[in-house]
Design a protein that fits this description.
4 copies of one chain form a homotetramer.
Chain A: E1 3-8, H1 16-29, E2 33-37, H2 41-45, E3 49-52, H3 79-91, E4 96-101, H4 103-116, E5 120-124, H5 140-161, E6 164-169, H6 176-184, E7 189-191, H7 199-211, E8 217-222, H8 228-239, E9 243-247, H9 259-277, E10 283-288, E11 291-296, H10 297-300, H11 309-318
Parallel strand pairs in A: 1-2, 1-4, 4-5, 5-10, 6-8, 6-9, 7-8
Antiparallel strand pairs in A: 2-3, 10-11
Chain lengths: 319, 319, 319, 319
Amino acid sequence: MKRIAVLTTGGDAPGMNPAIRAVVRYGIANKLEVIGVFRGWSGLINEEIKVLDHRSVSGIISQGGTILKTSRCVEFRSKEAQERAYNTVKKFAVDGLVIIGGNGSFTAGHEFGKKYNVPCMGIAASIDNDINGLDYTIGSDTAINTALNAIDNIRDTATSLERIFVVEVMGRDCGFIALAVALAGGCEDVFIPERPVDLESACHDIVHGNLIGKVSWIIVVAEGAGKAEDFAKKINGITGLETRAVTLGHIQRGGRPTAFSRDLALRLGKEAVDALLEGDRDKAVGLSKGRVVRIGFETAIKKKEFDLEGIYKLIKTLT
Amino acid sequence: MKRIAVLTTGGDAPGMNPAIRAVVRYGIANKLEVIGVFRGWSGLINEEIKVLDHRSVSGIISQGGTILKTSRCVEFRSKEAQERAYNTVKKFAVDGLVIIGGNGSFTAGHEFGKKYNVPCMGIAASIDNDINGLDYTIGSDTAINTALNAIDNIRDTATSLERIFVVEVMGRDCGFIALAVALAGGCEDVFIPERPVDLESACHDIVHGNLIGKVSWIIVVAEGAGKAEDFAKKINGITGLETRAVTLGHIQRGGRPTAFSRDLALRLGKEAVDALLEGDRDKAVGLSKGRVVRIGFETAIKKKEFDLEGIYKLIKTLT
Amino acid sequence: MKRIAVLTTGGDAPGMNPAIRAVVRYGIANKLEVIGVFRGWSGLINEEIKVLDHRSVSGIISQGGTILKTSRCVEFRSKEAQERAYNTVKKFAVDGLVIIGGNGSFTAGHEFGKKYNVPCMGIAASIDNDINGLDYTIGSDTAINTALNAIDNIRDTATSLERIFVVEVMGRDCGFIALAVALAGGCEDVFIPERPVDLESACHDIVHGNLIGKVSWIIVVAEGAGKAEDFAKKINGITGLETRAVTLGHIQRGGRPTAFSRDLALRLGKEAVDALLEGDRDKAVGLSKGRVVRIGFETAIKKKEFDLEGIYKLIKTLT
Amino acid sequence: MKRIAVLTTGGDAPGMNPAIRAVVRYGIANKLEVIGVFRGWSGLINEEIKVLDHRSVSGIISQGGTILKTSRCVEFRSKEAQERAYNTVKKFAVDGLVIIGGNGSFTAGHEFGKKYNVPCMGIAASIDNDINGLDYTIGSDTAINTALNAIDNIRDTATSLERIFVVEVMGRDCGFIALAVALAGGCEDVFIPERPVDLESACHDIVHGNLIGKVSWIIVVAEGAGKAEDFAKKINGITGLETRAVTLGHIQRGGRPTAFSRDLALRLGKEAVDALLEGDRDKAVGLSKGRVVRIGFETAIKKKEFDLEGIYKLIKTLT
């Protein structure tokens, strides 16, 4: 293994830059040449690449986003595009690929790696924290804190104006962010895609709360469970109480990565390079039970399982 | 003047709490008894009041929202409600009212004060910064920084994914926040209610930018100028480029007040009490040209005038 | 078990308040009466206690410090003081104690619990993250992020003025914070108490860096490894280069707890109450390998062991 | 005027980067060529310069520090160095200099400009806010908020452990930051160089506070008034109460500039270029009474006068 390439694909996540930094510098320290591919798979298809040296990743450790840019490359599903990508791999004698991204990226990496016999290692980076077999992905801690700051702000108004707020957070089909934020924010309820939403019961709680003097209320909604606007209208319809919707949206993707997101990114960057050096492939590196692990791409891209019932009950018990 | 009452009305703004702290402690230091009225005018109507002592405002200086709660009290427009409010004033021998709020609050204060001969002083607190004759109101600096943090986060994604974002900020009919945020955020364009929106021209700039390699773009929209969602759809329709909308919403109302919002709040709290002690009334205190001033309620509630053309041009020149 | 008491002792840590919230509300939900003890052991000695109901912990989830106050109670080492504390336990029919704190607190809890047969459960809360057998304590994530923000700020000046900075972080005898911050901050070196400090070699690196154009440098020092001021003077003496010292100090103890610190605090609060209800005692609850665990006080208070060599090497490799 | 040069000198301040951005882009928009000089005067002496185009200032608006680097250049006081600097000016046909910095920078600019007949305009950038005739300089708002965050954190511990803290903030001979922070932080006292420090009286207040139950106390010290460590020792000696010192230090220089610091920087950048284009020289641009103004270098470098007595009294009244 003499030369590896690194790319970021799919939605950006805070911590991708420190991960790039680690792949580049740890790779160089281990006598590898490291090539950066721009705009994810698209850059591999179109030969948008550049050799990265030690200095090229200076100062990026504290920055959100990704200096390599990223894209959701639909084109890569076609055989022709994959051929072109493989040609780039051959032309530049790339011995291994480090793919920084989430489920979609790993699915593509799994297929591409198998089809063309290219060693691919994934680094789990996704604010959604929806990679099966992993406790944390790069960026989720930052996104959760960003959403929590927003919730704390909204709490000020909810308390001052005595209102009901429905706050939609990111997470795709996964309720992880929503649960973490609802727990940390002391929120009164949370709707996630993994559990049926019982709106009647939620509204009953609100009305009952009102009767005993609990007049402000924040409900967190995972985007996979529905739209904040829709829920707000329904709650208003059922309870007659003024209800406001806030959709946090893309503010959750960016921003300075937290210490946790950075430290994880740096450790995973090292692990991915180590894996390639050891001849490992077709796996994603991530954090499980407090340790850095490698899990097969095929496992990683399955529907994530995690203990949500315990957290959900705790949220409801503590409000 | 022996006893004054303080209330917060309308939308909450970060810095209302330090303003309350100043009114209470500065009042007490000047031998006044200070009564807190809860839920704005509603509390005056319903006798929801409490004597506030030195300790009752401990630790609130750093907190968003208002410990006195607030409300948008439609009921207060009726004569009957006003009579009841006045009865509370008489019953508790309140010699002066300090009204912490914005335009709506001052309009009500102006009418109520005149009709019932109650000395009323306003403290300009509104994230919208839409009080005529004043450069800054309590809370606007905090709201602008909250919105700016959000924009900085969105910039990470806009740059990484090379996308167009339309970001809606608060400000009611006033483009002040939007201009301040767009300038500080290095945003490519800004739509405000005070200027006609030229969407064709904006889209022309975007397409031209794309041709010369400027592929990410953030447009700030003041809520008074339209909906981010609508603009995003139209821009996508005209340019064919993927365009995302983010509505920052209520996160802009809350949060720890900035130093500027706190210092202003504390100075204005003092000024309002001083004014009442000097026999002044029917005025709002605020900041103009770097100094604390008093302006008549009638002037304050007019449509705000400020130099927006200079800032707008600077934004366009610097992108 | 009908009535439990909760106290916070030793240095305060961000997340103590959410832990109190969880103990109180989860306890009440499980039919317990919960008593708050003020100022740690001191409050138990002097009967400074108060019944805590559901509302008494409203709004504290986002606040640093501890509403129960805390103290480093030297007096508690005397037999007489312990007797008085036990009298309070008996007098108010306290069936179990929840002790929120660190090593010192657990040592005291272990002794007191054994001597007087009082069921005691500890909740690991300490910014130092120095509890043996646990991966994270409440507050360490917040402290690390606070220190990291400071380092990011200092980096701006280090880069702009091309200077060497020695930054001292907290952590008592434990280098955990220092390592986490140095890694996440992209710092050039780190001195911790668990490894001998090789100042000659560090200075050699600095001078060598200078020769190849790396002119700014941040060295993190754990307080247990020495004083930033002393190191700065020595480095200046050896290298002749201008070197500045910054001691972050108590800013690392306070502030809004991060999502991680809050979620951990809430889960540990539940676990401590569960343990007492199940008849468990003489243990601390904390996080190990991603899961909430109970470990004996005797194990917890031993010198913490953790993999520092791997992190240290990674830091040095990536700079 | 065809070509101007821009440099940053003295201590870095958050907002220098947006100021550079404005000078470059506004200059280019006005048909000027803009040259960046590195490391302040040092770069002018040693010909460390580079043409700056539109793209060269992309993405710096949100970054602390200065991409042009800065230095405190003692060498520039010598005639020989000034001659070399002037040779650079001539060699590259620089028609005007924009000097971003504080008092020292303006003193040097005044001398250099006069001696060699080089049009120089200053942009007031200094966290110390110590420029005479100006209400705010670039960076002071950011520094004040950074210090305030630190104070808020320390307040958590001060309240929880019931301790006295002496917190030293920056500001050189000027008490502006200290006053602003002490007011916004609700601090109990503040020592500034412009007023004699009455330690006996301060200690009397502390002891009296203790007797009536006010057991936590934060005193802000401007660096020009003395060392936090020294004051802490003296207060402990007089009162016998445990007193801790925290020196905030260089964390106050860096960090993302606030909206206020950025907007001011951008407006001042424009003004400085406008001034040169209009043939103006030997002046600094800054904010006075809410407006952008130009003041002669000779006035700017005098000892700053501002109303400190009013703020000081307000701080003492409100605690």
